């Protein structure tokens, strides 16, 4: 499997290199055409063009560099150097991700969805598509994107729950402007040290196929993973397919009060194939069916060294075909200053449901007969002016064995946003999880690494947990060095666990903390959206809890 991962990565890199060589020649001529198109006369807006039945004419692709040198504040020697060193995203990489082409009838829905697809790329800061010329029933479009700095040769550091993480890495998220990500790193984490090689391409061979190849040599084992799939990339996609392979060996720690109290060795081999189909978007809804088959083998053994409890899960192997169904509503909202700082954000505001049912039997090689169940749901709603927004999510997974549910976990969350002004926002979230007949390697934990910021990571465990977070967010106009946008937050976290796992002390009841935090929104780098620096003060817990917790980490959200 290791050879397969390397072959997939090398083949993808060679293809991208050939693509760059062939695409480089027409670059300058193309840029001039796009610049001229952006200065064209006013044209009807998108909904009007759609009502008129306009056809799409020319499509100008304009990937802007990291810094806008026409802005006097950014026309500096350092910024000019960064632009020269950076290889801009190739126009065909942008064009391939559009859901329309010249000659198609203009559709505002497809324009909006294409923008969302482009904004989802880590190597782009923002994307917009707008009409720039209209003549004889044909409309020309300009696709404008903004690149970010994607090369990360350096040192990383993080801290949460009283534990430090660090790393040395060489990572490129947009290799030669092709959208391909390649990284080599050495990281020291909470559970293990790891040397990692990873290759990602979300548009393999200029298609909608994606590949993610990963190899990690760890202090406690190794991970080999290869995912190749063509997802339902758009609401109107008609088919999807995928193959996934995983070979993972590691030491699994069991935590209590933030400390490792036992551990065991886990080995997992997973292989899955799938095929999906859909009739596309009908009356604002997409209905998708998927068939697949999965081989999932997990073996456990004692870890080297002394163990307090000497607990080892039982081996499990399930081989099963499965069927899945997904229902997706076409409903999105566009925001700023919610989870990001000064950046366009796409929120899903519709209803989304998915279910998957599989049957593992001994006749197929499984250790025992079982129904494999999984389901997810989400829903979003917003006020007419989008001042208040509520996002709901839920999931359930379990096995049905011998007439009862085993390893059943249900999780739910609600996120609420209230826009108080351009610079202030109130945020609240409630999260809960509950389990039944949990496998030993399934832990429901609460601590500094999953929301209870004033306490050590993985501090309390049990078979259920709940967490409430209240946050007052402040978004400033401060833009130091034209590199970071600055925000701040004051927060309260309240959470607890219920029940008692195999190694957990009884629940200490409700635990609370208060704190303040600095937020730095990275506008020029694709290596992390928001840097968090938090000071959290625990209000409960034992004498072993520090009076203040310092957390430094990079997150996708505020």
Question: What would you say about this model in short?
Answer:
12% of the residues lie in helices and 53% in strands. A hairpin with a 2-residue loop joins strand 11 and strand 12.
Write the layout of secondary structure elements.
Layout: H1 2-23, H2 27-37, H3 46-52, E1 55-64, H4 77-85, H5 91-96, H6 108-119, E2 124-135, E3 138-147, E4 151-160, E5 163-172, E6 180-188, E7 193-201, E8 210-218, E9 221-230, E10 239-256, E11 259-282, E12 285-302, E13 316-329, E14 332-335, E15 345-348, E16 351-360, E17 370-382, E18 388-401, E19 404-419, E20 424-436, E21 444-446, E22 460-462, E23 464-475, E24 484-498, E25 511-522, E26 530-538, E27 549-555
Parallel strand pairs: 1-3
Antiparallel strand pairs: 2-3, 4-5, 5-6, 6-7, 7-8, 8-9, 9-10, 10-11, 11-12, 12-13, 13-16, 14-15, 16-17, 17-18, 18-19, 19-20, 20-23, 21-22, 23-24, 24-25, 25-26, 26-27
**N-C termini distance:** 38 Å
Number of strands: 27
Shape verdict: globular
CATH topology of the largest domain: the name is Porin
CATH class of the largest domain: Mainly Beta
Number of domains: 2
User: Would you tell me the overall average pLDDT?
Assistant: 90
Low-pLDDT stretches: 17-35
Strand % is over 45%
Main β-sheet description:
20 strands, antiparallel
Roughly what percent helix? 10-25%
| Rg from alpha-carbon coordinates | 25 Å
Give the quaternary arrangement of the chains: single chain
CATH architecture title of the largest domain: Beta Barrel
Count, helices: 6
Helix vs. strand class: mainly beta
